[in-house]
């Protein structure tokens, strides 16, 4: 299970249809450029808070069956799931081969390769059967989906009905005493640190994509539209991130995803 599974080659992902989110091409190419420095930058930029947020995400998922970590990147969440739940196996999915290569090194070093598999692919067309997973999650990744509704419908489809679907995502603090300081950090310090430490301008995109992410109540509505039920949202300190949790249903999202599959099949005949 230690190999990166390239069922969906990167070249097939870069022109994903349905691009709706400005700046997010869904190909993972941008993350390919920063993969080697990603973990270090993450810790510095979030002042180490990202790990405690990920622990909350992990706690929202079940300790049995097979779990899916979408936009797994360097596999931090996939590894945390495998370490926290000795009974589970985990699949991490991401279009960025370089991010997955860093993740694969970490999986092997922790000798978790029998329980953690990393697949190349996009959230918008997951290479999995419906109802495959006992739970699914995405950490700091949904912001990058070119079509968030489609990605969330896919998460609903591949998760067994009643299984948890959890999303951890950064947000722009809009109120509170500390919000001007947090905004200063996200808008000025993060792109500056990113440019210096990674030698790339990709961290400018981070600032723009966080700013463009919808407010929590709108994202809750989007998850519900995707068919996910009982959606709850938890605000992380200072409002810099939110954890969204819900349950997969066998209704709207699944039917829609299947209808879409059918119409795409018809169109290609
Ligand atoms: C900010 S990183 C988050 C990585 C990891 N989840 C974490 O907690 O550190 C965002 C990830 O989203 C991935 N991504 C971009 N477009 C995607 C898509 N269409 N489907 C799935 N993942 C995508 C990127 O390749 C990148 O690894």
Would you kindly provide a written description of the structure presented here, covering whatever features stand out?
- By secondary structure, this protein is α/β, with parallel strands linked by helices.
- The chain has a single domain (4-173, 213-268), classed as 3-Layer(aba) Sandwich (Rossmann fold).
- Helices cover 46% and strands 16% of the residues.
- The protein contains 10 helices and 8 strands.
- It has helices at 10-13, 29-45, 49-59, 76-84, 97-109, 148-158, 179-198, 202-212, 216-225, 252-268; strands spanning 4-5, 66-70, 89-94, 116-120, 135-139, 164-170, 229-235, 241-247.
- An 8-stranded mixed sheet has the order 1-4-3-2-5-6-8-7, sandwiched between helices.
- β5, α6 (148-158) and β6 form a beta-alpha-beta unit.
- α2 (29-45) packs across α5 (97-109), α2 (29-45) crosses α7 (179-198) and α7 runs antiparallel to α8.
- The radius of gyration is 17 Å and the shape is globular.
- It starts with a strand and ends with a helix.
Kindly state the number of beta strands.
8
Oligomer: single chain
Number of folding domains? 1
Fraction of residues in H or I helices? 40-55%
Radius of gyration using CA atoms only = 17 Å
Structural class: alpha/beta
What's a quick, concise take on this entry?
With 269 residues, the chain is of the alpha/beta class. It is 46% helix and 16% strand.
